Amino acid sequence: MRGEATVLHADLDAFYASVEQRDDPSLRGRPVIVGGGVVLSASYEAKARGVRTAMGGRQARELCPDAVVVPPRMDAYSAASKAVFAIFRDTTPLVEGLSIDEAFLEVGGLRRLAGTPEQVAVALRARVRTEAGLAISVGVARTKFLAKVASAVSKPDGLLVVEPDREEEFLLPLPVERLWGVGAVTAEKLHRLGIRTVGQLAELESSTAERLLGRAAGAHLHALARLRDPRPVETARRRGSIGSQRALGNGPRTPEELDVILSQIIDRLAQRLRDGERSCRTVVLRLRYGDYAKATRSRTLRMPTQRTVVLLDVARALLSAAAPEIAARGITLIGISLAQLATADALPPELPIDEDEGLRLDTALDAVRDRFGAAALSRAAQLGRDPGWSSPILPEHR
């Protein structure tokens, strides 16, 4: 017998754009685009005109010439996210954050205190609307995967409960793109094979799916199509890596522009390391070329570090090695992940020379940004540049 639908997937709607509309009443009901060079978020009024996240700004404005384009305010989005996650944790201690704007909540133990999972979801949505001023969509299901699909189907500003006896009825008719892990390339491959719905994928034998899609991807997607997802909501897991990425649109980028974007990403990630009292040993550069092929380059240090200058030097070396490919193929996305994380007490002691001066500088810069906001201090090369960040992989995306 299948278990009860007790997992909530809560996902803020068009998060960055919704914060802008919340904070500026003149934007409500109007198409709003966050980010100039590339779309970081679009309101549902803009989405209705074809605007999508990660789209180039010029294309977005052609599709929606009356859109209001606003620069990103990451401090405002961070504050809004913290307020919403406080509501999540006040609802249940079992919260697994996925990104700045979404989380899983396990509410099976709240029946006597707060009612059924559906009643908990209704109350949660009302609190987010009242206390944070934002719309949130919630899916309720037996597994994390189904809850995530349900919240996506319910958007915008919706609630959908998938009871265990309705799981196949709900999932199997959906397009394969709804499966967790099916991107554009995998979807195109499945379409070429005549597989367009989850049900058609579920009808295959597991071995056939693995042969068509690769062993790991095929097994994963086939299991999801057959409603197998045993993962519990995890609350105590410490991240093995942190990362951030920036979509660049389809226009050309000079090496100087790429260096500015790289330094923006490293500045922010290095501060997150220090704020979390963590260090890392591996720097991973992720690229998406103009033909949408992806590439990854990495370097592992002999000793863990949390120093901005060290991480930036490594990232620049990785980017320099990729320069010929970028020049030949163009670039549409750049990202950095910091892996092999450890606690800061794993750092080796530093001699009282230049390294110590650099660490004090990092600490001083962190303190200024904590007090006056992330934009309070910038590198000279970043002045006047679009400060649009995407949030920890994955970015705000709906």
From TrEMBL:
Q: Which GO terms describe its biological process?
A: DNA repair; DNA-templated DNA replication; error-prone translesion synthesis; SOS response
Could you identify this protein by its name? DNA polymerase IV
Q: Which NCBIfam families match?
A: PRK02406.1 (NF002677), PRK03858.1 (NF003015)
Residues annotated as transmembrane: none
* Active site, UniProt feature: E102
Lineage here is:
Bacteria, Bacillati, Actinomycetota, Actinomycetes, Micrococcales
Molecular function GO labels: damaged DNA binding; DNA-directed DNA polymerase activity; magnesium ion binding
Q: Which organism is it from?
A: Microbacterium lemovicicum
Every UmuC domain range? 7-183
Q: Which residues hold Mg(2+)?
A: D11, D101
